[in-house]
Amino acid sequence: MSRLSQGGNPSFSQSVRPIFLRIAWTAAVAILFGGLYSYLTTQTEWIEQTYATRIYPALAQPLSALSSIFPFSFAELLAIAAVIVLPVTLVITIVRSIRHGAFWHRFLQWIANLLAIATVLWVLFFSWSLLYYRKTLGEQLGLPVTESSTQELVTLCETLIAQANELRAGLQEDENGNILFPESLAEMLSKVPSAYASFSEILPCVSGSLYCPPKGIMLSPLMNYTQIVGIYVPFTVEPNVNTAILPTTILANACHEAAHQRGYAREDEANYLAYRVCMVSEDPYFMYSGTYLALLHAMNALFDVDRGTYLQLRATYSRAVDHDFTQERLFWDQYEGPIAEATDTVNDRYLRANNQSDGVRSYGRMVDLLLAEMRKWPLSMFLFSIFDFPQFYCARRTVSYAQKTCRRNIGKHLKRAYCLRTRLRHDIRPYVHRLGAGSIHPSSCHGFLYQFRTGGCLWRKRFG
């Protein structure tokens, strides 16, 4: 008879004591970090000024650079490995216990290892979750989010519809009328970091040369049943996108997940940044994808408050834009079911637990930022859909070009906008009169040129 099976069993208690100590230390670390996390969530100023802009980028970029070594989603590989390894190791533990005895010793050791790994992941995850408590993007950009009128929402929708109709007309299509990318999806996704590099001139804290580009998920067809179009994994600092959906929103989804990667955790802010980054990308496929995302949320908001006007504006979609929205709805209808409902419930509770009281509805709050933007800079919100953007948008961003052509182009497009102001319900006579009277200084025109060149971007960038 072995000593482990004898009465009193002193050797058993001695053998499991170190395991219980490991579990206790692991629990203590988790509790201490939980208390620290609860305290730090109240320090909004520190999170914004120190953690979000200094500590997080310094930690995230090297990890992201390591992840970029893999052409596939390293996070997905780890997830698949975990699903396989955990039950396999548990079975091995049970089999060894049957063969060699000491079941509880081996089982508790397995539990202790699992808790240690879970604690490390928990610390990493909640280190990123602190970003939910930073200052809002509206505060950073000086865009006060206030209650908006229905008319303002209608104006926003009209603007986005005109913009979407114009952009969609220049895109390639397949035999089914769906968007056809001129390059492979991987090559399109590789453009996301350069788009954020351009946008960093407006919002410097989104810069970062070491961030890896978004990656497609290999199990995307299965992911459709959850109706998840993208996921950011803070453990590997990888933005991942579902590539088995229609191409209409893939690029905007990639920019959305890349916003999380760069420290913007809130869903409405990630959506807004996705739209703006798409608009400065200089790629019409990105620009349309971002506009489609903004239009989808804006029209959903209008449907909730004025269904009659919604139907009127819905009828103004071009044939191609209407086709995209119809196909999107039909595509997701086939994946409705209990899995999608369960996923939505889990996501809703997760968001509510992380300082987003609206839950999954917080995705649609990007409309509040767009309306705040329109109120602060009414001119720049609608000129993109009116001027001849292919020639003007692609103009070189140089001081010499600005000095030679800025006043001429701004004058031409402002007057054209004035002639069509009733179409978008804007009165821009003050801008036209100022331009005609020569009261706009050339240096301001340089800012206007950049403002218009970035597809209606609202922040002026002066040249020289």
Describe the structure.
There is one protein chain. The protein contains 22 helices and three strands. The chain has a three-stranded mixed β-sheet. It has helices spanning 10-40, 44-67, 74-100, 103-129, 137-141, 150-168, 185-189, 192-199, 220-223, 250-261, 267-279, 284-305, 307-314, 319-333, 338-353, 366-376, 378-382, 389-393, 399-419, 421-424, 429-436, 442-453, and strands at residues 215-216, 230-233, 238-241. The protein has three domains: 3-133, no CATH class; 148-335 and 363-376, no CATH class; 384-453, no CATH class. It is mostly helical. Helix content is 65%, strand content 2%.
What is the strand and helix layout of this fold?
Layout: H1 10-40, H2 44-67, H3 74-100, H4 103-129, H5 137-141, H6 150-168, H7 185-189, H8 192-199, E1 215-216, H9 220-223, E2 230-233, E3 238-241, H10 250-261, H11 267-279, H12 284-305, H13 307-314, H14 319-333, H15 338-353, H16 366-376, H17 378-382, H18 389-393, H19 399-419, H20 421-424, H21 429-436, H22 442-453
Parallel strand pairs: 1-3
Antiparallel strand pairs: 2-3
Any descriptors?
single chain, 464 residues, mainly alpha, three-stranded mixed sheet, 22 helices, 3 strands, 65% helix, globular, disordered N terminus, disordered C terminus
SS-derived structural category: mainly alpha
What is the 3D shape? globular
How big a fraction of the residues is strand? under 5%
User: What is the tally of helical segments?
Assistant: 22
Task: Please trace the helix and strand order, writing H or E for each element.
Answer: HHHHHHHHEHEEHHHHHHHHHHHHH
Number of strands: 3
The residue ranges in which pLDDT falls below 50 over 5 or more consecutive positions are 1-10, 359-363, 380-464
Number of domains: 3
Biggest sheet record: 3 strands, mixed
What is the terminal-to-terminal distance?
89 Å
Radius of gyration: 27 Å
* Lateral arrangement of strands in the main beta sheet: 1-3-2
Instruction: Give the overall pLDDT as a whole number.
Output: 77
Portion of residues in helices?
Answer: 55-70%
